[in-house]
Amino acid sequence: MYSFGSRIRYSETDSDGRLTLLSLMDYFQDCSTFQSEDLGVGLSFLRERKMVWVLSSWQIAIERLPEMGERVSVGTFPYDFKGCFGFRNFFMQDEAGSYIAKANSLWTLLDTETFKPKRPSEEIAQKYKLEERLPMEYAGRKIAVPQDMEIKESIVVKQHHLDTNHHVNNAQYVGMAMDYLPEHFSVTGMRAEYKKQALLHDILVPYVQVSKGEDGTVTYVVSLQDTQGGVYTNVEFEGRRNYAEAG
Hints:
The N and C termini lie far apart (42 Å). The protein contains 5 helices and 11 strands. The chain is an alpha+beta fold.
């Protein structure tokens, strides 16, 4: 397991003074990047060998979002390799060691010249110690997209959406999808399924549907598609509207 300690910064919080979902995702992504760098199989190593790990899916379960100034620890570890796929858990804990959030993720190793999946070499696989996966309720990777979705205004990919791989960063898709959540909506779970990469100046067409469960939970499904109906990313949010904070 790899972990590091931190303190929630003001710049990472929302209007309620709590860590944003995107900042939580940044912590998780930074943690796995730090681990790979420290093991000597980070960005430069992969770039020299014309390889890149791309995220295929996220599942994040949130107990609560910490407040500004809270001290937390962030950790990650891989728990399986299958062919070109790597499976990785993440977590954030408070000072008492209680879980704030847990996550499951699936990554695919790609050849950057052919853009085809490839199996990690022994040089890569032997660097990581596989551990038992976190106890959590594991959801399926596929997100069911409803037929009767509402189309929203198109989004043009800008420079600030891109990462070092020159495509839209995985968290940026989630950020785009979050724009369709109501104010003071408390996210308790998020899943994202990544289908294809969006590049600079691509046009993303959002489709949105909301449904309510018998237990009071609300689910938003956002499908970010190209102009021909091909899916870039599907995102599902579960949570509740915080009426006390909404006034």
